[in-house]
Automatic annotation (TrEMBL):
<dbReference type="InterPro" id="IPR011761">
    <property type="entry name" value="ATP-grasp"/>
</dbReference>
<dbReference type="InterPro" id="IPR026838">
    <property type="entry name" value="YheC/D"/>
</dbReference>
<protein>
    <recommendedName>
        <fullName>ATP-grasp domain-containing protein</fullName>
    </recommendedName>
</protein>
<feature type="domain" description="ATP-grasp">
    <location>
        <begin position="185"/>
        <end position="416"/>
    </location>
</feature>
<dbReference type="Pfam" id="PF14398">
    <property type="entry name" value="ATPgrasp_YheCD"/>
</dbReference>
<keyword id="KW-0547">Nucleotide-binding</keyword>
<keyword id="KW-0067">ATP-binding</keyword>
Amino acid sequence: MIVPQKFYKDFQSIQTIKYGPYESSVECFAHHKDRQTLYISSKLKSEINLANNKKISLNVEAYSCTISLVLGVLIAGFHSNDLLLGARTELFRKMSNVGKELGYETIFFGHQHILSKQNKIYAYYLHENEWKQGTFDFPTVVYNRIPNRKTEHHPNVIRAKKLIETNGTLFNRGFFNKWEIYEWLMRSNESSYLLPESILHPSKQKIIQLLETDSLYIKPVHGSRGEGIIKCRKLETSEIQCQYYRQNVPQMNRYTDPNAFFNQHFPNGLKGYVVQKEIPLLRKGASAIDFRVHVNKNHRNSWEVTLICAKFAGKGSLTTHVQRGGSLHLVEDLFSKDKAKRMKDKLSKTALKVSNTLENYLRQPVGEIGFDFGIDEEGKVWMFEANSKPGFSVYDHPKLNEKAATVFSYPYKFAFYLHNLQMNQTD
């Protein structure tokens, strides 16, 4: 690496150079040509995957220098108290510190922080473990962590996302549509066998027919985190028993008249709902178990499994969502060492297979997927949900929290891939 003579004294002790996840040894020399051009050999550029003829910023520390990068994170739910970035503030702090290890400055912002006239962002960033606010250019890559569908559909957020994509790349652009995911996976022999039988926009008559032989889950196509799910079954008394949530509190009702059930829960009809038969899952004691599997894209644009855990439903709850009383467990804590390994291997292979299948249909860059899988009493894997923005509640478990730093490194790795892709396209 050849640097301007003016800065040579700052570089003469440098032995390594870092660029995102890459690191290489380096020897520095000086040139007198000008004061701003830095020359890097083709061999070194190849080793650290650096694009040609680009403007870069370097951070020099002792015997190492790092090519600086910026990742934007689009969020919502800001507060004026100690939790400036909302309930996820401490996890975003951890994420920022992970980013610093990879040479990233992480800036957090909402739609209200975009200065459209100046084409800048007035964003939050972590400096010496304190949150500060400053003005930044639009990053080449932004990670979408808008927390819910309602906020995502706000006109100001929609405008913000369009502006971000005008200036760079936005990944995890939005929440998945459950029925689109189902249709895409049903088209492939690699994944269709994983899906429970599902019916979109079911009729009342179809639900009554299915209840003769099976318990059912009725879910909104655009729901997430268990919102709007209803579980129902027909009792020996011929009543329909249904479980659901009202303001996050589990409820249970019985109906002698099916029309009373439909009128209370689906007054506007069943358009926009999916019905699925209940699968007889593995149980521990009285609790059915399902599994959360996180997959993330790395800096080579390949999927990796980054986290697997088991989930129990809470008492009286119809889903395993932690926000609704569910509990998290390590697979190794529930099964023998050998059985846990076999189950995790099976879940990992399935998650990677489904991720690659979905990627054939997704028209947007997606850096992570959170899958909800079940394993039935015969050992068959079933896929219930694919989430484009897996929640952070898994890190409430102390052992899983220890994995958070590793999982948080992947958005930076994928952002590095997207950044370089953008840089190389503008050569």
